[in-house]
Each structure stands twice: as C-alpha cells, then as structure tokens.
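Suppose you are handed only two things: the residues of a chain and a line of SMILES describing 3IX. What would the bound structure be? This form records exactly that question and the answer produced for it, so the two can be stored side by side and reused later without any lookup.

QUESTION INPUTS
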Amino acid sequence: MGSGMQDIEIAFQDQLQKNHCFGCGADNDQGLKIKSYWADDGTAVCRFTAKPHHCAGPTRYLNGGIMATLLDCHSICSAIALAYRTEGRAISEGESIAFVTGSMDIAYKQPVPIDSPVLLKAELESLSPRKTRVVCRLFSEDNLCAQADVLAVRVPDNW
Ligand SMILES: CCCCC/C=C\C/C=C\C/C=C\C/C=C\CCCC(=O)SCCNC(=O)CCNC(=O)[C@H](O)C(C)(C)COP(=O)(O)OP(=O)(O)OC[C@H]1O[C@@H](n2cnc3c(N)ncnc32)[C@H](O)[C@@H]1OP(=O)(O)O
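ANSWER OUTPUT
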C-alpha cells in the first residue's frame, strides 16, 4: 500500500462543464450520469449498472430507450474527448468543444439482463473537422447485445 502510481483518471463527463444531458450530464441529478474513459487500445469505454426502473416490458430486461441513450451519450462524449485530444488540449481547456447526434442507427441483437453491468465500447473515426463517426457496441456478460453507428456533428458551444 502507498507506493507506485495512482490511477487518477477522470471521466470525460466530470471534465465537461454545465452539461445537463439526461444520459451524460454530471449536472443532471435525475440522469444516468454515465462515465466514459479512454482504454489502452484507443477505444473509449463506459460501464453502467441499470436500476430496476430502467426495465423493458419484462422487468428482467433493460429498456431499449435507455440502451439508445447509453450508446448515444457514450459516443458523443467520446467524440468530444477525441476532438480535444486531436487539438492537443485537455477536456474543457480553452474554447469549449460541443458535438451533437446527427444520426444514429441501432441494431438490437440480444436482450440485456437488467441485473448485470453493461460495457460500452466506442471506436472513433474523424471524418472531417465537423463530423466523427462512432461505432459503439454494448456488451452484457461478454455478449454483443447492441451496436450503434453514430454520426457526431460539431456545433457551436452555444447550441
Ligand atoms: C449537447 C451539447 C451542446 C451544447 C453545449 C452545452 C454544454 C456543453 C457541455 C457539455 C457537452 C457535452 C455533452 C453533451 C452531449 C451529448 C448529448 C448526447 C447527444 C444528444 O442527445 S444531442 C441531442 C440530439 N441531437 C440533436 O438535437 C441534433 C439536432 N440537429 C442539429 O442541431 C443539426 O441538424 C446538426 C447540428 C446535426 C447539423 O446541422 P448543421 O447546420 O451543422 O448542418 P450541416 O448540413 O452543415 O451538417 C454538417 C455535416 O454533417 C452532416 N449531417 C448532419 N446531419 C446529418 C444526418 N442526420 N445524417 C447524415 N449526415 C448529417 C452534413 O451532411 C454535413 O456534412 P458535410 O460537412 O460533409 O457536408
């Protein structure tokens, strides 16, 4: 105990300011408050544990709208993080960068048990200064349960 490096990594969302988004806003007390981080392989990851009221029709499965929110918000926050990294800045350092969802296509492949944590993994590709494509996968217990193809579009920070 007490020696070596400490993991002081801070989630993307905890570095963004004044974000009241239901899915990713640190400033929304009734929101999902997801937390996203860089992984060593260049993807961005997020782990989320649902509450019982996030259920689908059957109480044992996660609601598809909640899944969409997780995929959307993890993707957009990761696109924002990538843009800061590409500009050589820490998140929220200097002029703020904002992206929104231009489009999102989701394949729901398997039902997601509500009791198990999910893992979201986002692969990012910058298409132009204004557009980032994100392929975001949602896993439960190592099973690929949903996949989203997201177009993140940069907007002015007063959007
Ligand atoms: C949300 C934050 C913004 C505010 C900042 C506030 C606080 C900042 C703090 C933190 C922010 C952090 C996180 C917030 C995070 C996320 C929330 C989750 C995501 C959401 O929940 S967000 C809500 C849902 N989201 C919308 O409410 C979008 C409504 N919409 C629009 O606001 C416009 O529609 C817009 C901006 C999308 C485009 O408007 P625009 O005027 O820039 O249009 P333009 O044509 O110039 O598009 C430029 C290039 O994108 C291509 N393009 C555009 N749309 C496309 C589509 N649908 N399919 C295929 N390509 C598309 C064009 O083809 C062109 O491509 P090219 O450059 O190659 O020609």
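WHAT STANDS OUT: The two ends are 47 Å apart (CA to CA). Residues 1-7 have pLDDT under 50 and may be disordered.
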